[in-house]
Amino acid sequence: MEIDLDKIYHNARTLVSRLGERGISVTGVTKAALGSPEIANTWLRAGVRNLGDSRIENIATMRRANVAASMELIRSPMLSQLDLVVANAHLSYNTEIEVVRGLSSAASKANHTHGIILMVELGDLREGIMPEHLESAVRETLLLPNLVFQGIGSNLACRSGVSPDSRNMAALSALADSIEANLGVSVPTVSGGNSANLEWVLSGAETGRINHLRLGAALLLGREPLHRQVIKELHTDAITLKAEVIESKRKPTQPWGEIAQSAFGEVSPTYDKGSITQTIFAIGRQDVDFAGLDPPSGITILAASNDHLVVDSSNYPGGLAVGSEVPFQLNYSALLRSMTSPFVTKTMYSQLEHS
Ligand SMILES: *Cc1c(COP(=O)(O)O)cnc(C)c1O
Question: How many CA atoms lie within 13 A of 20 on its CB side?
Answer without folding.
Answer: 10
